Every structure is written in C-alpha cells, then in structure tokens.
Amino acid sequence: MRHAIHALALLLSTGAIAAEPLPGKALFDRWCAECHAPGHGHPGTQQLERLRGASLAVLETRPDLNAALIRYVVRSGQNAMPPYRPSEISDAALDQIAQYLGRNQPAPGKRRR
Amino acid sequence: MTPNILPPGLSEKDFNDALAEFRRIVGDQYVFTGDALSAYRDPYSLEDDAKFSTPAAVAPDSAEQVQAVVKVANQYGVPLWTISAGKNHGYGGAAPRMAGTVVLDLARMNRILEINVDSGYALLEPGVTYFDLYRHLQEKNLKLWLDVPDPGWGSVVGNALERGIGYTPYGDHFMMQCGMEVVLANGDVMRTGMGAMPKSNAWQLFKYGYGPYADGIFTQSNYGIVTKMGIWLMPEPPGYRPYMISFQREEDLEQVIEVLRPLKVNNIIQNAATLRSLLLVAGINATRSQYHSGPGPIPDSAAKKIMADQDIGMWNFYGALYGPPPLMDVLWSITRDAFASVPGARFFTPEERRHENDVLKHRAMTMRGVPRLTEYSFVNWVGGGGHIGFSPVSPINGKEAMQQYIMVRDRLAQYGFDYLSVFAIGWRELHHVIELIFDRRDPEEKRKAYEVFGIMVREAAEAGYGEYRTHISFMDQVAKTYSWNDHAQLRFQQTLKDALDPKGILSPGKQGIWPARYRQGG
Questions:
Q1: By the 8 A CB rule, do B105 and B86 touch?
Q2: Is B28 on the interface with A (CB under 8 A)?
Q3: B437 touches chain A (CB under 8 A)
C-alpha cells in the first residue's frame, strides 16, 4: 500500500498520469527504435520518409498504423526490413508493440464520420 | 498438423513424434510450425524460398535442453540448423542450407554469464546480441568496449563463430574468442581450452589449454553447437580520435593500399580500419535514383556530383587512434605523413564534417564499439533492400587490390549493378567485402545477381582469391574452390564430420560440409 501511495505521489508530482507510456513503448525502444526512431541515422525512418513523406516517416507518431499490419510486417519483413522471429519478440510482446504503435488511430466512431 | 515439408527420408509420423519430444523438452510455446515460421526465411535470398524452407523451429533455453534436443534429433534422424540471433543477413539469415532442416534457434539463451573488468572479458550465451551486451555495460557503468560489426543486432557469439569482423583494435572477432562450451552431435557436452580442467579459473584467459586446439573447428562449421563462449573486451582507452582520409581518384586505390601495408603490419594503424568505396559511403544518406535514373551502373558524371554533394572521395579511409594523447600524436603524425603522399588526399576529424548524418560521425561510434544500425541504410541504394556479400581475401597489395576492384566492378557493371565495397584491413590481409545490392521484389534482378555472383566466385578463385564467408546459396561452390591436392581439406572436413556426427544431424551443408547420408544421396 505504501508503495502504491508513493508511486501515485510520484506520478502526481511529475504530472505524468496521462503520459504514462504503454508497455509497448519499452519494447519498441528495445527492438525497433534503432531503425525507426526520429532523426538522423535511422534507416527505417530515412527510407519511409523517401517512400511516404515526412509525415509518415516516424512510426511512433503515425495515425494510420493498425495492429494487424504491424504484426504482419514484423513477422514477414518488408523491403529492407528483415522479419523478427517469435523466439526474439514473443507474440505477447508483439501485441504490446502493435497496441503502442496503433494508439494514434482515430477511434472507430470518429473514423466513420 | 501436416507440415509443408519434411526432413529428407523421414516419415510424417516419425517427424511428428520428434516434434512431440521437442515440445516436451522446451515447452509447447517454443516449438514453432506453420505460419509461425514466416521469419525463418532468408528475406534477401536470390533463390526460391522453397530451397531453404524449414518445417519447424525449436528454441531451447539452456545447454541441457540443447543436449536433450540433440539426443532426440539423433534418435529420429532430424537435421538441425543452428542459429543464434539469426541476423546473418547477406549470408542466409535464419534459413537452413537444406530444405527440411529444423532450425535450432538459440535466441532465448541470452544470458550474460560473467563480465570481468580487470581481465577484460565476457562469458556469453549465443543469444546475447551486441545491443544486449552494450546496454549491460552501460547500465553497470563498466569501462569495457565491445567490438561491433556494422549492424548491432547480431549475436556476439554467432558473429565470432562466423569469423566476422569489427572496427576497433579487437576487430578480428575469432582472434578475441577464448574458451567454449560445446554440445556435440551425440548429446555430450565439453568445454575447450582451460575449461576442460574442472578447477581452472583461466577458461577465458588462455585460449589453448593442452593438446590439439579445438575451438577453430567449431567456427563456420557443423561439428557442434556452441552454448557458451568467452570473448575478450577492450579496456576503455584514455584517449580516442577517429578520422577519415578521402582520396579523389579511382586509380588512387593502388597507392593507398601500398601506403597502408607497412602502417598496418607495423601496428601504426591500431584498429581494424576500412577503406570504403564512394557508393557504399554515399548509400548511407542517398539513393541511386537521386543521381541516376537509367539502367546500368552510375556514370562518372554522377559519381563526381555525389563526391561534391557529400564531400567524400572515390575511396574513403576510416581509422582511429587509441591510447594516451602523446601516443596518439605520434601515431597520427606517421599516418598523416604517409597518406599525404597520395595526391589530393584530404584529412578530416568528425568535427570537420559538415553534414549532420555524415558517415565519419557514425563510424566514430562503431570504431569505439557502439552498436548501431545506421549503416544498414545502404541496402536501400536501389530500393527493395536486397543484398548479398561477396568477400574475397587478398594480400595487402596495391596491384592485387586494383586487379580485384576492376574484375568485380566490370562484372557487376556488365549485369547492371553498382560497385559498393569495403576493404577491411586485417593483420596481414584484405577482406574485400562487396555488397551486391538488388531489388528483392524484382525476380529478374535476383536472377542476374545469382548469375553474376557465381561467375565472380569462379573468376576470383581462378585468380587465387577465396571467399572468407558466403551465402547459403553458394556454400558448395565456394567450398570447391578450396581444392588444393584434390580437395584434401574438404575430405578432411568430411572425415571429421562423419566421426563427430555419424547420423549427420548438425547443420547439413554448412560451408559445403555434408554428412555421409546426404553426400551419398547427392
């Protein structure tokens, strides 16, 4: 209990409740960020900018990624990107990454508009 | 479930029984079949995926589980293809040489078992990647450096076993390896070097132990499964200065290599430095279509424009100095004076490079052992991301480097491919690593790449240049080029194979070494 209160106080003090990262964020940082982080030196970001333009180059800010697409590309690879095996990124970890990258999608109600 | 392919000679029932045994050993969730195998293919293969397809993958978590899996494989005659991180890209990735081979995937065995800062070594399991080890050293604030290849996602153990290279003074990875634990084909497990003595505390300190030195036969081989390995790590030096020297003319290659040889042989150049071709450097930040839209290789006019845009040369030497500042001062003055004899040579520190994503700024990290993936950008040179490494070895000799360059450049040009290469400077030799970049979505490009690759292997061998490593598609062809005295070495390798692995279950066809059961069957 004391730990919970402490953690809550910490979150309140940093104003971080709303910004608490999804568990997929850490997995993304571990497995994907070397190629897909924003800025120079990241081959995935660089190539996506060439192919799709600057607004769709950085995976973490894209509004159009859905979980099924992410699962497919990670397991099958695409263009220069090699596939990742379930021994490296488990299905559960991949679901979390997909959830994290899919979080910017508009809610279904909004999309129907 | 019916697998789409079976190991050669195995009935479906026997195979399914073996899979059930594998599941009992490693757990249901770590035996992969069907759709879960999509990542066990070579994404950059030049041939049909079916030639290298696997019916299942098994991912054990410990040496004991590896032993148990090997015993079952022996009992049923199931061939196993061992991978660690599975990132042997350009050489086959995670895919087995022979269709029907089960992949033994060691990625879950990713424990860092020991780091010794005073003596400068690590004891690792094969699933530990360069990123894993680097993050561990950073988190613990340990003053040791790694030596990394260009992409950091690979296995430290796997790369040393493939005799890969990096760019610090510890760039020859197998030379820095010390002590192994190996599961043999009969399920026995042994430790090499000092590890063979039960109470020795020098397993990671003295490579050779007593009697015949065994570690070498477990590299680029199919004689055993390495489950632990020692690797020496470089103590963080008191000073570090990376640099780049650019050379403007194609023909400078000969003189540059002649200047290099005495500097390297006398250890004035301390690290595993590299001389990189124009387009390999350019490909980190640019693509071919920005400079040339037609067929055929990049014309000279476009090459000149790339040189001007990126402020690079036809050849670009990346090296570094390590040690106390007075030592670096002396080594630099000798190095600079030697290369200044090449007309038009230009010298740079990272601070002097004007582009934010300049390759020297990136190499300043790799030459101090920081793993990255930045360099992987060059595989996008033509789009589609396909690449395969062709890597003949030669003396550090200007005329021979020039001869190799012209031979490869012209053959690639004939087939419409550009020349992207790195000359990696070893202790006494050059690894001339050519990256053949193709669009993997284009079957005709793949066909041409396959054809020209085979021609280059043959022509290089006729001129006396052998590959140090190759893709699974070409393992047999390259093995046959090492043919002195009626293939005496390959016969010796087969003799060892038959003695150590009589049932032929370990990585059949690896480096052209086939067990008797598949040799006789053709």
A1: yes
A2: no
A3: no
Cβ-defined contact of B39 to A42 (cutoff 8 Å): no
Q: What is the pTM of this model?
A: 0.95
Residues 6+ apart with CB under 8 A from B348: B243, B244, B245, B246, B360
Largest interatomic CA distance in chain B: 71
Q: Which residues contact B86 (CB under 8 A, 6 or more apart)?
A: A85, A88, B39, B40, B93, B94, B105, B107
Of the candidates A30, A47, A83, the beta carbon closest to that of B380 is on: A47
pLDDT tens digit sequence for B150-172: 999 999 999 999 999 999 999 99
For the stretch B367-404, pLDDT in tens is 999 999 999 999 999 998 999 999 999 999 999 999 99
Q: Report CB contact under 8 Å: A87, B57.
A: yes
DSSP string, A45-90: HHHHHHHH-GGGT-GGG-S---HHHHHHHHHH-BTTBPP--TTTS-
Nearest to B424 by CA among B447, B402, B401: B401
Which residue(s) pair with B425 in the sheet? B430
Nearest to B122 by CA among B190, B174, B179: B179
Mean pLDDT of chain B: 96
Q: Which residue has the tokens 């430095």?
A: B273
CB crowding B164-197: b at 16 or more within 10 Å, else e: bbbbbbbbbbbebbbbbbbbbbebebebbbbbee
Q: From the list B131, B152, B379, which residue is nearest A80 (CB)? A: B379
Query: Which residues contact residue B198 at a Cβ distance below 8 angstroms, ignoring those fewer than 6 apart?
Result: none
What length does chain A have? 113
Residue in chain B closest to A41 (alpha carbons) equals B374
With H, G, I as helix, E, B as strand and everything else as coil, classify residue B463.
Answer: coil
Measured between CA atoms, how close is A39 to chain B, in angstroms?
Answer: 9
Q: What percent of chain A has pLDDT over 90?
A: 71
Count H helices and E strands in chain A, helices first. 7, 0
| Joined tokens for residue A106 | 């508009």
Nearest CA in chain B to A51: B383
Q: What percent of chain B has pLDDT over 70?
A: 99
Write the CA distances from B241 to A41, B112, B336, B363, integer angstroms. 21, 30, 13, 11
* CB proximity list for B102: less than 8 A, separation 6 or greater: B7, B22, B54, B55, B56, B57, B58, B73, B78, B79, B80, B81, B96
State the best of A29, A85, A89 to mutate against chain B, taking most chain B CBs within 10 Å: A85
Beta bridge partners of B328: none
Of B40, B44, B76, B91, the active-site residue reads B91
3-state secondary structure of B372: strand
Question: Which residue of the set B134, B405, B415, B468 is catalytic?
Answer: B468
Residue A19 pLDDT more than 80? no
Please name the member of A43, A76, A84 whose beta carbon is closest to the beta carbon of B377: A43
Task: Give me the residue from A30, A41, A85 closest to B94, CB to CB.
Answer: A85
Q: Give residue B267's region: left, alpha or beta (phi > 0; psi -120 to 50).
A: left
Tokens of residue B367, six digits: 């030459």
Q: Alpha-carbon distance B303 to B178, whole Å?
A: 44
> Hey, of B105, B376, B382, which one would you mutate to test binding to chain A, going by the most A CBs within 10 A of its CB?
B376
CA B6, CA B14: separation in Å to the nearest integer? Answer: 10
